[in-house]
Amino acid sequence: MTDDVRNVHDALSAVAEHWQPHRLASINDYDVKVVKLQGEFVWHSHPETDELFLVVSGQLVIQLRDRDVVLNPNDVFVVPRGVEHCPKAVGEVHAILFEPQGTVNTGDVGGDRTAPLRELD
Amino acid sequence: MTDDVRNVHDALSAVAEHWQPHRLASINDYDVKVVKLQGEFVWHSHPETDELFLVVSGQLVIQLRDRDVVLNPNDVFVVPRGVEHCPKAVGEVHAILFEPQGTVNTGDVGGDRTAPLRELD
Asked: To which CATH superfamily is domain B8-103 assigned?
């Protein structure tokens, strides 16, 4: 639980590195995270959970095996559990993620793009 | 689960009435809702869940019994489970709510401000 007000833009300003989710708030056993994205991530899925993306700025393409989902600012998309996806940021993208606590960014594939959830200062 | 892209502003444009939450997306057994607020709501609490507010536009004051929490655009606040609160919108406020499916807007008090979750067209 976050016990006070957090601002999305201030939080994103405090994030220096790409692909490093930071916790904005928690509700029950879910986390709301802010993240900066640039370039392409890795193909992965989350067998146990859906994953929600809300784009704050920039254009995010969520590549699915059968189509590309293009997200512009204020667009929301939910990747269903078990569905392989590979986010690709066109320029720099600022986004909010909503998912259960403990959800790992690289899902079922792991590897060197795996990043622990970080706390904002 | 919402199976395609939803835009926050388009969704809010489709909402005509105040205090009527509409489902923007679902993730697992949680809903992301958009809502327009104006004036003061009723004092209530949610004994079984935290409730997250993200302000899109306007200024929302979440009155707690011991203080007022003032939220401006892009501010996030989580009302902990069981904590009495009474939202008050200064002018019209557009907001996003995250909470478990089945969470009732008036929580433990019910009454004529209770509104079912509505679907966007």
From this structure: Jelly Rolls (2.60.120.10)
